Amino acid sequence: MNNNIILNVTLKKPGEYNTIVTDLLSTKRKEMKAVAGFGLLNPWEGTIAFPDNARLSKPRAKGLTMVMDKGLGLSETAELLSIAGEFIDYIKLAFGTSALYPGQILRDKVSLIRTWGIHVYPGGTFLEIAAIQHQIADFLEKCRDLGFSAIEVSDGTISLTPEERADIISKAKDMGYHVLSEVGKKSPTENPRIEEIVSQVNSDLIAGADHVILEARESGKGIGIFDEHGDIRNEFFRNLAHDLRDTSSIIWEAPLKNQQLELIRAFGPNVNLGNIPPGEALALEALRVGLRSDTLKDILRQQTPLALV
Questions:
Q1: What is the C-alpha to C-alpha distance for residues 124 and 92, in angstroms, rounded to an integer?
Q2: Mean pLDDT confidence for 177-187
Q3: Averaged pLDDT for residues 194-214
Q4: What sign does the dihedral 260-253-60-105 (CA atoms) show?
Q5: Over the Cα atoms of the chain, what is R_g?
């Protein structure tokens, strides 16, 4: 049966969409099998092996990929999951976009994402709005009602006291959420110092955050570890990575390919990366496993001629 026909028909009946498409994708997912420890059906099995076999498969605690969704429709989401769902760990409904979806569409989309074992959550800016309106408790309850599995705690635009920030993280954890915190500001003029970043990261982890995101915005320019051109500020980055010591709990926002490449070179294929555009999820995975020229060259440099025979 043509999947596109199914999607086009069900979009006319949003209440039925989730059941039909979820059943379709669950069936497809069951058809997948592990290939060389990797959770997908590789059509090239027995012909081509991934050059970098160190990549971890899902479920995993590191090597996480967070996709930034600025408004994919139901059919687009289904198509993204059917192609790249095995490579995505988080989907963030960016900023406050989740407030603009028709209610049933939002519920169906969140439910569909979760059937793939992917955490889904509203953007941190939306929580910040809840904070300034003194609606954190109601916000967390509504997120649970809508089916979100994760929460992002940030103060990129507003200011939260350390006590307020820790309290929100603690409340979300007590409600069973997977908690991501974000460290950094949205404005280039407010970039925190290394010691401030390290201190906030440690405080958030102590408060119960599962991972900490380092801010770079959707542009990846002029924020955090990146300069105004989107290149890594090398000295700042080296010192920050050194002072963080254990970076396995860090998700580096890196929307641009050159940023992803440099972070993979620095930390290996299982570095946690975020703010990945939906259309770049497969391209990032190819970069991680050596199926793109940039990382393939790095792998070949590390191998002896005998290993290539």
A1: 9
A2: 95
A3: 97
A4: negative
A5: 20
Q: How many CA atoms lie within 13 A of 164 on its CB side?
A: 15
For 89-121, letters b (16+ CB in 10 Å) and e give bbbbbbbbbbeebeeebbbbbbbbbbbbebbbb
Query: How many other C-beta atoms lie within 10 A of the C-beta of residue 86?
Result: 20
Please give the pLDDT value at position 218.
Answer: 86
pLDDT tens per residue across span 69-122: 999 999 999 999 999 999 999 999 999 999 999 999 999 999 999 999 999 999
* Closest alpha carbon to 253 in 291, 219, 300: 219
Spans of all domains in the chain: 60-289
Q: Which H, E and C letters describe 24-57, residue by residue?
A: HHHHHHHHCCCECCECCCCCCCCCCCCCCCCCCC
Average pLDDT over residues 237-255: 96
CATH topology of domain 60-289: TIM Barrel (3.20.20)
> Which residues are within 8 A (CB) of 203 and not within 5 positions of it... i.e. 6 or more apart?
162, 165, 166
Q: Are strands 65-69 and 90-93 parallel, antiparallel or unpaired?
A: parallel
Q: What is the pLDDT of residue 26?
A: 52
